[in-house]
């Protein structure tokens, strides 16, 4: 399946919508391929613009998905419209339904202790035949030790999941997948940030009207002002002006 791309601030973004993304993931598993996907919100694009290594991680992936309405807006400004936003919060539960139907298996890696287990319980209540072959929440660390990395890889490989879902926050999860992808016995590895907590019902999600109108960030800011202030109030407003400069070929 050929993926149409647009380039925003130097990072290649898939133009696929959610349904097309789910179809891509399904075909990857059915065809016994091995692919690495990233979910890229505004801040990841801003960080990648200044971080050559991070941009290399994204531009060498098998697909970067538009996590957020502003990313879709940016593609429209640039004349290469993305067909729809694709957030980790949507991909995880929607693909769980498809996985139950097709017999795909999941491994959940990351988040705080107990979250992955709670997520598994919630999903298995919704999708009784869903195959969840393992979970693991590593102890918090800015950078994992070689021993911890080896442990995580061994746990995943012994379970042999079709999809490895990683929740280590972005872009930490993208670094981890990229650096260990060759050793992982999976068909898909994808980082989905806070989707574990939200899908498990531990953190509420913004109402649909806020999601549709690009205001999900505001909902998160109101809930976690101290943690999200710099990201959403200082960093994110730079995004559209930079996109306009790209449009005028001034970047």
Explained architecture:
The chain contains 13 helices and 8 strands. It is an alpha/beta fold. The chain is globular and about 50 Å long. The two termini are 31 Å apart. The mean pLDDT is 95.
Largest pleated sheet: 6 strands, parallel
Question: Roughly what is the average pLDDT, rounded to an integer?
Answer: 95
**How much of the polypeptide forms β-strand, as a percent range?**
15-25%
Strands of the biggest beta sheet: in what spatial order?
A: 4-3-8-7-5-6
Shape: globular
Alpha-carbon distance between the two ends: 31 Å
Total beta-strand segments? 8
**Uncertain regions: pLDDT < 50 for 5+ in a row?**
none
**Number of helical segments with 4 or more residues:** 13
Helix content: 40-55%
Class from helix and strand fractions: alpha/beta
Q: In angstroms, what is the radius of gyration?
A: 17 Å
Question: What is the N-to-C succession of helices and strands?
Answer: EEHEHHEHHEHEHEHEHHHHH
């Amino acid at each position: 399946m050929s993926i149409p791309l647009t380039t925003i601030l130097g990072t290649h973004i898939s133009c696929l919508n959610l349904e097309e993304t789910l179809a891509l993931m399904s075909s990857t598993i059915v065809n016994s391929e091995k692919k690495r996907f990233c979910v890229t919100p505004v801040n990841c694009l801003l960080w990648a613009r200044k971080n050559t290594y991070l941009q290399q991680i994204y531009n060498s992936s098998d697909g970067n998905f538009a996590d957020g309405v502003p990313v879709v807006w940016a593609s429209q400004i640039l004349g290469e419209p993305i067909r729809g936003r694709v957030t980790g919060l949507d991909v995880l539960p929607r693909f769980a339904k498809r996985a139950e139907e097709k017999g795909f298996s999941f491994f959940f890696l990351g988040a705080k202790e107990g979250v992955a287990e709670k997520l598994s319980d919630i999903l298995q209540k919704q999708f009784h035949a869903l195959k969840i072959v393992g979970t693991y929440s590593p102890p918090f660390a800015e950078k994992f030790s070689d021993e911890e990395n080896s442990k995580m890889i061994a746990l995943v490989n012994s379970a042999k999941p079709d999809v490895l879902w990683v929740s280590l926050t972005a872009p930490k999860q993208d670094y981890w997948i990229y650096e260990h992808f060759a050793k992982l016995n999976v068909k898909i590895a994808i980082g989905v940030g806070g989707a574990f907590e939200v899908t498990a019902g531990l953190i509420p999600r913004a109402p649909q009207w806020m999601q549709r109108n690009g205001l999900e960030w505001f909902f998160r800011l109101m809930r976690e002002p101290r943690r999200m202030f710099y990201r959403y109030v200082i960093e994110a407003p730079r995004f559209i002006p930079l996109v306009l400069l790209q449009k005028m070929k001034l970047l």
